[in-house]
Amino acid sequence: MLTLVVGLALFLGVHSVSIFIPGWRDAMAERMGALKWKGIYSLASLAGFVLLVHGYGEARAAPVLLYQPTPWMSHLSMLLMLPVFPLLMAAYLPGRISTAVRHPMLAATKVWAVAHLLANGTLADALLFGSFLAWAVADRVSVDRRPKRAIPGAPRGRFNDSIAIIGGLVLYGLFVLGLHGWLTGIPLRP
User: Fold this and answer.
1) Strand, coil or helix: what is 112?
2) What is the DSSP letter of 178?
3) Is 133 helix (H, G, I), strand (E, B) or coil?
4) Do 41 and 29 lie in a common domain?
5) Are residues 43 and 93 in the same domain?
6) Virtual CA dihedral for 27, 28, 29, 31, nearest 10 degrees?
7) Strand partners, 122
8) What Å distances lie between residue 28 and 25, 31, 38, 40, 144, CA to CA?
9) What is the span of the domain harbouring residue 99?
10) Do residues 83 and 49 both lie within one domain?
11) CB-based contacts of 49-54 (< 8 A; 24+ apart in sequence)
């Protein structure tokens, strides 16, 4: 469990620099240069991600059950996951969806976390998905207070929303049909 906690702290800590100390982040990026800052940021994020994935796998080997999800919770989780992939794609395909939702990546993260908390009841699940949910809420609250930064992505286009919806639903279908089990080692329960 310690590896999971350290991985979450490192991964979400790196991603929280702009939330809690944006001036320091900007000063470091300016002092180091954008490329070096992004390199260090990426390496720290990758290290945190590897640790949290490894730690989550370790914790699943000896699960501590907090609650037993009922079948309807798994079904609700599957339903909640429907908009997640289109929202993720809309974050990089500016259009009406990204305008209406304002921060589609954070919205997708919150829905993803809630859906997984409904379907999984172990301590490791609560730590992993609860941490991502808390981080996404904190980031959403702080994002309007920070200076705007350009998000890399496609140029605004009239087909971006269609691409986000169709592409996102195709990805959802692939995850349901087995990609989730292949990537995570955890098959979806009907």
Assistant:
1) helix
2) I
3) helix
4) yes
5) no
6) 80
7) 65
8) 5, 5, 10, 11, 21
9) 65-190
10) no
11) 49/7, 49/11, 50/7, 51/3, 51/4, 51/6, 51/7, 51/10, 51/11, 52/3, 52/4, 52/7, 52/8, 52/10, 52/11, 52/128, 53/7, 54/3, 54/7
Predicted TM-score of the model (pTM): 0.90
Residue 104 and residue 76 share a domain: yes
Distance (Å, whole) CA 104 – CA 100: 9
Report helix, strand or coil for 15: helix
**Phi-psi label, residue 120: left if phi above 0, alpha if psi -120 to 50, beta otherwise:** beta
What digits encode the pLDDT tens for the residues 129-157? 999 999 999 999 998 887 777 777 777 88
pLDDT surpasses 90 at 6: yes
Length of the chain: 190
Domains of the chain: total: 2
